[in-house]
Amino acid sequence: MNGQTTWRAMKIWGAMLGALALGFVAAMPAARAGSGDRLAFLNEQGATTSPIGWRQFCRDFPAECRDRPRGIDLVRADRHTWATLIRINAHVNTAIEPVTDIDQYGTEERWTYPTSGRGDCEDYVLLKKKLLIEAGFPASALLITVVRDRQGDGHAILTVRTDRGDYVLDNETNDIRLWNQTGYRFIKRQASHDPNHWVTVGPGRAPAAVATR
Fold first, then answer.
1. 117 with 96: CB under 8 angstroms?
2. What is the crossing angle of helices 79-95 and 3-21, to 10°?
3. Nearest Cα to 213, choosing from 143, 157, 141, 121?
4. If you compute the radius of gyration of the chain from its CA atoms, what whole number of angstroms results?
5. Distance between CA atoms of residues 213 and 201, nearest Å
6. CB 185 within 8 A of CB 196
7. pLDDT of 9-48, one tens digit each?
8. pLDDT tens-digit map of 197-213
9. CA 144 to CA 54: how far, in whole Å?
10. What one-character-per-residue DSSP string does the chain give?
């Protein structure tokens, strides 16, 4: 199956999952997080280096890295938003076959869109972020994040900043969980104000600004 055929098949499967997602909306968070729920949010603590793979991705897709968010927004986690997150997360997790960069490209690290229908964790993240932006989510609320998983291995996930906390979209599971429910050790992520700046992260306080999306 070539890249174009795979991409069309992914879009068809995504439409099918759109209907299924409505059945999962009951799993959405129950209330907006407040100052007492500060541990639901990650705090940007200081500048750090961007991953080599991100710099390579920006060389390959410069237009994807030029845009800067117009503001720093949170996503309002209403029923429609939650259904969209579930749909896109499950769609990408199902449509993409996991494969290492070594097996697919013969190199240790390559970040790219999985147009072949195969990819590793970074490729899942890149596609989820792209589809969510196309669905109307603010880019400043969709942050590529590097963690250590339960085995201590490096892993990439997508953090979605909502008014109910920072939630994780992960190719390892279709469940969407708060960052502090993943069992991961969070290392760094894109800065909210600029995707080309990366910051270390840790527990923080609830931000104020909420997007209408």
1. yes
2. 140
3. 141
4. 16
5. 25
6. no
7. 554 445 444 434 434 443 556 545 444 466 799 988 999 9
8. 999 998 765 554 455 45
9. 9
10. --HHHHHHHHHHHHHHHHHHHGGGGGGS-SS---GGGGGGSEEEEEEEPPPHHHHHHHHH-HHHHH---SS---B---HHHHHHHHHHHHHHHHHSEE--HHHHHSSS------TTSEE-HHHHHHHHHHHHHHTT--GGGEEEEEEE-TTS-EEEEEEEEETTEEEEEETTEEEEEEGGGS-PEEEEEEETTEEEEEEEEEE----------
Distance CA 91, CA 11 (A): 9
Is 101:107 a contact under the CB 8 Å cutoff? yes
Find out whether 146 and 126 touch, Cβ atoms under 8 Å: no
Spatial separation of the C-alpha atoms in residues 64 and 2, rounded to whole Å: 23
Q: What angle do CA 93, 96, 101 make, to 5 degrees?
A: 115
CB atoms near residue 109 (< 10 Å): 15
Environment class of residue 100 by beta-carbon count within 10 Å: exposed (0-12), middle (13-18) or buried (19+)? middle
CB 86 within 8 A of CB 23: no
Place of tokens 């589809």: 131
Residue 137 CB: number of other CB atoms within 10 A? 22
Mean pLDDT of the chain: 84
